[in-house]
């Protein structure tokens, strides 16, 4: 019911407004000082006016009036009849003086007491008399052309003129040009109109009336009837003196022709009219166009005038792979139609399409007032928080005579993760997209056994233990070579051989004497015991049979470090044997006593002559080798001996198995923070990051695991799985095949394993060198030589592989992109560079150079550019 009442009230209000009675005044805008003119008040509406009042004022003389009139019109549309009435009140006035005057307002009262008013009007009174003014256009030939002889048309009676709202402008500043026709004749029509082409200007036709209407206008104190033929908006496109070509028009004019013969008072009734054609044209017009001042900002978009800028997104909520637009609006007054699109720097990975431009201008101003809308369609390819930098747009302010820079933004927005892009969708510029791996693939499980961890950067090769071990091996080989040389020399020395074998011969004879002792053979026992003593001392001291005497034996024993008491006891034992051989049997006890004395004396002499140097050297060599083996370990194993590290590892393994990824990562990170590292630790950390879908960090730690141990198969497999989850797919430039084979062979073992293998092959080479140097057989020497060469080559290859991996580890020239979207520039600058391509998180790059916070990077396919160091993390 309320809605119905509202509709009824609205209908009545509409009818009341449509039927409202109004009053207006119609008066010429220019009159001559001696000219009578009409002032007509027109009342339109259905109500009859009452009490119409008007005073003509003191500036005009009332000649006649008022004359009242009424007319009614009836319209029937679709069977509906409507009628309206018009009431007129006409006065004839005459000016009293020249100047600008105001016609006072008239008032009238309607039914119900409502009062209406016409409003005031302005009239210009010029000094030129009425006879010089033209008659109203469209009147018959009764009007006379003033200032001309009958049958001719003067240039003052009919001419055409261009007017400009300004003469001195700058490039891009709009100028309004109006083409008017001025006449004081009776024009019947127009022919052959030619308008200028406006060379050097951008032009827009604002007004081109089809029905030409003349209005009175004061031109240099003369009254003309003028009409606008064309109106243009001109915008100069170049500087200098620009000339506008003339416009031309042929006017068809009716003129009076006076009959031949004398002049009669009846001539005016019998004058004839004829039609003539008069060509009129404008004068060439020159505009002074100045160039824009130098030093225009880089954001200058060609605007000249006064403008404002705004920017906004077409959507409040954005999703990946869904289209959106950035709408930039520039509005104001000036050369709106010629404004260029502002430069917008979209974040990388925004797929931007062609800009759409729409214009909303006031047609009456020829496009010099309004707005221009630039729509930048784009599709976000990555989720996260992004920001479109502030949009700067500069224009030249005509009034201030300087460049003004406007700023809109920055525009911050958030992109939610949407559905995956269809396979037919466009590809991000600069980098191709790769599909996700099949669903039945997953990373390998973590390493659960506590690994041997070392301090960061600790390698076996070139360590102090490695050098000591090599030195010990070389020294041992040299000692062995000297020992074998000495043995060979001894074998060639007969006297020395006898000396060295003296104890053995003595032991053999003593053993035989012992047998005789057991058999209680008295004479045979002492003979064999005498031979053992004499033979031992003769061989040991190299005493010939001719020089053998007891005094000689005692003296030489003393000279070789044997105590005199022991030497005397030895000589006395020889005397006892000689005496017993020729004396009666002294019994078994005496034989036993002499036998034991001989064994003791010979052992004592042997010990005193040899000394203890050999045993001391042997123990020292063993200590050196043991120390070298202890120093050869690359680092102390912390994990196996530190209970705190063991507890952290076991806790992290337990948390991982329970799916508590954050706690597992915290424990693993604590181990790494203690300064320890191992390939298994890094691989496990990569697994945790993979489970929480932080693929860039997962790839980072898999790469660190492989950098420490390239032979770690689990880390390499998991790296392949994680790499399938990132967006960029880089096709690497093929590597030289021999280098590729060498790299594959190098990655079979880790650096420490190759270091130990180098030691093994070096030991084998030393052994083969000894065989070559000491062997007396040709076949053995040949085998030793070639085996030594092969062993040295293998040892060098193992050393090269170990150093190769160590160098790769120490070289910090590889990094992983950690920012979701990163732009790669042509130079180390954000302002004076261009975007070459974009990279997404997880992509591996190689660092070539650095300048401040910028890094010169290269991809596996050879492309290069500059990135911020904050966008990446070193492996």
UniProtKB/TrEMBL annotation:
Name of the protein in its database record: BatD family protein
Listed InterPro entries: BatD, TPR-like_helical_dom_sf, TPR_rpt
Region (Disordered): 129-150
Keywords for the protein's UniProt record, in alphabetical order: Membrane, Signal, TPR repeat, Transmembrane, Transmembrane helix
Stored SMART domains: TPR
Annotated PROSITE patterns: TPR, TPR_REGION
Transmembrane regions listed in the UniProt entry: 459-484, 620-641, 753-773, 785-804
Signal peptide: 1-19
UniProt-listed Pfam families: BatD, TPR_1
Chain positions of TPR repeats: 679-712
């Amino acid at each position: 019911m309320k809605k119905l009442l509202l509709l009824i009230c609205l209908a009545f209000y509409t009818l009341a407004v449509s039927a409202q009675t109004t009053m207006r005044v119609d008066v010429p805008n220019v009159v001559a000082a001696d000219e009578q003119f009409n002032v007509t008040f027109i009342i339109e509406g259905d109500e009859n006016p009452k009490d119409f009042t008007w005073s003509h004022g003191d500036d005009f003389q009332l000649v006649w009036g008022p004359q009242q009139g009424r007319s009614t019109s009836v319209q029937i549309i679709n069977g509906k009849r409507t009628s309206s009435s018009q009431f007129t009140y006409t006065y004839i006035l005459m000016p009293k003086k020249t100047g600008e005057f105001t016609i006072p307002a008239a008032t009238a009262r309607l039914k119900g007491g409502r009062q209406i008013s016409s409003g005031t009007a302005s009239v210009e009174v010029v000094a030129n008399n009425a006879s010089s003014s033209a008659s109203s256009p469209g009147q018959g030939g009764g009007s006379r052309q003033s200032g001309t002889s009958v049958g001719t048309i003067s240039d003052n009676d009919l001419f055409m003129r261009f007017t400009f709202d300004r003469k001195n402008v700058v490039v891009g500043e709009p100028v309004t040009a109006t083409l008017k026709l001025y006449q004081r004749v009776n024009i019947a029509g127009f022919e052959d109109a030619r308008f200028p082409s406006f060379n050097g200007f951008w032009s827009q036709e604002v007004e081109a009336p089809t029905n030409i209407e003349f209005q009175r206008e004061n031109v240099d104190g003369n009254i003309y009837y003028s009409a606008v033929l064309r109106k243009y908006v001109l915008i100069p496109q170049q500087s200098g003196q620009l000339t506008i070509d003339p416009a031309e028009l042929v006017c068809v004019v009716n003129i009076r022709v006076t009959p031949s013969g004398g002049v009669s008072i009846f001539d005016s009734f019998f004058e004839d009219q004829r039609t003539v054609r008069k060509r009129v044209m404008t004068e060439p017009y020159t505009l002074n166009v100045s160039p824009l001042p130098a030093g225009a900002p880089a954001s200058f978009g060609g605007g000249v005038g006064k403008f404002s800028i705004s920017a906004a997104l077409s959507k409040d909520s954005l999703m990946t792979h869904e289209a959106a637009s950035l709408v930039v609006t520039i509005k104001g007054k000036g050369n709106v139609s010629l404004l260029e699109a502002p430069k917008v720097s979209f974040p990388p990975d925004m797929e931007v399409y062609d800009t759409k431009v729409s214009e909303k201008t006031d047609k009456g101003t020829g496009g010099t007032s309004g707005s221009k809308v630039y729509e930048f369609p784009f599709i976000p390819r990555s989720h996260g928080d992004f920001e479109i930098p502030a949009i700067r747009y500069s224009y030249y302010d005509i009034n201030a005579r300087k460049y003004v820079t406007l700023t809109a933004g920055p525009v911050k927005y958030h992109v939610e993760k949407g559905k995956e892009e269809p396979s037919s969708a466009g590809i991000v510029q600069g980098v191709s997209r790769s599909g996700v791996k099949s669903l039945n693939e997953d990373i390998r499980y973590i390493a659960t056994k506590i690994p041997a961890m070392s301090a960061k950067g600790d390698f076996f090769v070139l360590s102090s233990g490695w050098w000591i071990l090599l030195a010990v091996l070389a020294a041992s080989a040299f000692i062995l070579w000297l020992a074998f040389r000495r043995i060979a020399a001894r074998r060639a020395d007969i006297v020395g051989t006898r000396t060295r074998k003296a104890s053995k011969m003595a032991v053999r004879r003593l053993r035989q004497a012992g047998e005789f002792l057991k058999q209680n053979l008295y004479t045979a026992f002492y003979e064999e015991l005498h031979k053992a003593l004499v033979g031992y001392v003769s061989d040991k001291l190299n005493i010939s049979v001719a020089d053998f005497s007891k005094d000689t034996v005692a003296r030489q024993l003393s000279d070789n470090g044997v105590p005199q008491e022991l030497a005397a006891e030895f000589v006395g034992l020889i005397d006892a044997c000689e005496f017993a051989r020729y004396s009666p049997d002294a019994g078994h006890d005496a034989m036993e006593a002499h036998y034991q004395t001989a064994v003791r004396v010979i052992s004592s002499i042997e010990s005193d002559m040899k000394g203890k140097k050999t045993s001391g050297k042997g123990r020292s060599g063993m200590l050196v080798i043991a120390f070298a083996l202890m120093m050869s370990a690359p680092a102390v194993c912390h994990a196996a001996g530190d209970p705190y590290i063991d507890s952290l590892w076991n806790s992290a393994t337990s948390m991982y198995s329970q799916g508590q990824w954050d706690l597992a990562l915290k424990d693993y990170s604590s181990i790494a923070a203690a300064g320890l590292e191992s390939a298994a630790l890094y691989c496990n950390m990569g697994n945790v990051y993979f489970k929480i879908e932080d693929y860039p960090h997962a790839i980072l730690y898999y790469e660190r695991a492989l950098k420490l141990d390239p032979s770690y198969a689990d880390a390499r497999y998991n790296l392949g799985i994680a790499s399938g989850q990132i967006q960029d797919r880089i096709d690497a430039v093929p590597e030289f095949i021999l280098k590729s084979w060498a790299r594959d062979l190098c990655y079979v073992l880790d650096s420490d394993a190759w270091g130990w293998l180098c030691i093994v092959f070096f030991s084998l080479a030393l052994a083969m060198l000894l065989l070559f140097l000491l062997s007396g057989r040709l076949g053995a020497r040949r085998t030793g030589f070639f085996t030594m060469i092969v062993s040295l080559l293998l040892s060098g290859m193992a050393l090269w592989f170990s150093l190769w991996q160590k160098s790769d580890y120490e070289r910090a020239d590889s990094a992983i992109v950690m920012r979701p979207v990163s732009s790669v520039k042509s130079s180390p600058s954000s302002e004076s560079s261009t975007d070459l391509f974009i990279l997404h998180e997880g992509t591996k790059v190689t660092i070539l150079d650095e300048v401040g916070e910028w890094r010169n990077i290269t991809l596996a396919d050879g492309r290069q550019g500059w990135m911020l160091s904050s966008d990446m993390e070193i492996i």
